[in-house]
Amino acid sequence: MAKYYDVDDILAEQETLPTVFNTEVYALGRALDPSCDSENLPAGSSVNLPFWLADFLSHRKMLKPHLPKFLKKRLRDELQGEAGCVDLRDRCKFFYELGRKLCTLSELDGSEDLSEFLLNTFTSRFKEMLTTSHVCSNETRETYSRVLTNEELELFTRAQASSKAFERWIYSKSTVISSRIKRNKRKREWEGQEFRFRTRPVVSA
């Protein structure tokens, strides 16, 4: 169930996934499937349902959920290459959040290694995302953010803000640091002169 005040969580549960009904559904055929010819939805019907409804019905053994199309083999093959270049946002804006929720479905077909796949995907993309956030221009940021999921985009934005804040701190302290270095240098030179003066040998007349 979605967190009551979390808009992203609610939107993630609106994402659809394919399901196959185990039982006949009476009087809701056209409501669940607009292409259905009768009021009743027969057992074995394949219908795309939002996650929240598929989750509710699967716990009552009324249907069997399947992995969404974007989590099938084609995407996994793409991510084995340049993972950071793959447009996950186009597949699903809430890629990780929905994936996490899918892992909670005990009857989900093809979910055996889903949690490991999600973790590996995030790990491989996070490294490049963090590096890019520190060096990219505004133009690059706009282009790069188009391939990030909502979760990745939030982390990317925070990392970039943190990098800029650190740069501002360095520049604001540069004058103070520079003056301290110069002052310490003069102090060392003065102490060196004083040391030489005290150790100068006395020449008798």
Automatic annotation (TrEMBL):
The keyword Nucleus applies. One of its GO terms (biological process) is mitotic DNA replication initiation. It comes from the Eukaryota. It is found in: Nucleus. Residues 5-57 form the DNA replication complex GINS protein PSF3 N-terminal domain. Residues 72-170 form the GINS subunit domain. Keywords: DNA replication, Nucleus. GO terms for cellular component: GINS complex. InterPro entries: GINS_A, GINS_bundle-like_dom_sf, GINS_Psf3, GINS_Psf3_sf, PSF3_N. Pfam families: PSF3_N (PF22466), Sld5 (PF05916). The keyword Nucleus applies. CDD domains: GINS_A_psf3, GINS_B_Psf3. Its main location: nucleus. PANTHER family: DNA REPLICATION COMPLEX GINS PROTEIN PSF3 (PTHR22768). Belongs to the GINS3/PSF3 family. This is Subunit Psf3 of DNA replication GINS complex. It comes from Chloropicon roscoffensis. The lineage of its organism: Eukaryota, Viridiplantae, Chlorophyta, Chloropicophyceae, Chloropicales.
